[in-house]
Design goal:
2 helices, two-stranded parallel sheet, about 80 residues
């Protein structure tokens, strides 16, 4: 049996400081998203550290899933 050693990781972020709040087209939703992200979002480098962690693992290990969010964000 051929083994390919393909690794995949699903990263599920909570509120991360990105351009997402700018994509809302409804004024009231955009305002709410902006306020939420300004008060809650964590820096984008938090996401980058999760990616780096998953990628830095040895070839014989697979990180299947990472769920992370700001401690201020409700579960």
């Amino acid at each position: 049996m051929k083994v390919w050693n393909i690794r995949t990781t699903v990263i599920l972020p909570g509120a991360v400081a990105t351009e997402l709040p700018n994509s809302a087209t409804e004024a009231d939703i955009a305002q709410g998203m902006k306020a939420f992200y300004e008060s809650t979002a964590i820096p984008a480098d938090s996401f980058a550290r999760c990616v780096a962690f998953a990628m830095s693992q040895p070839d014989d290990m697979d990180v299947n899933e990472i769920l992370f969010r700001p401690t201020k964000q409700a579960a």
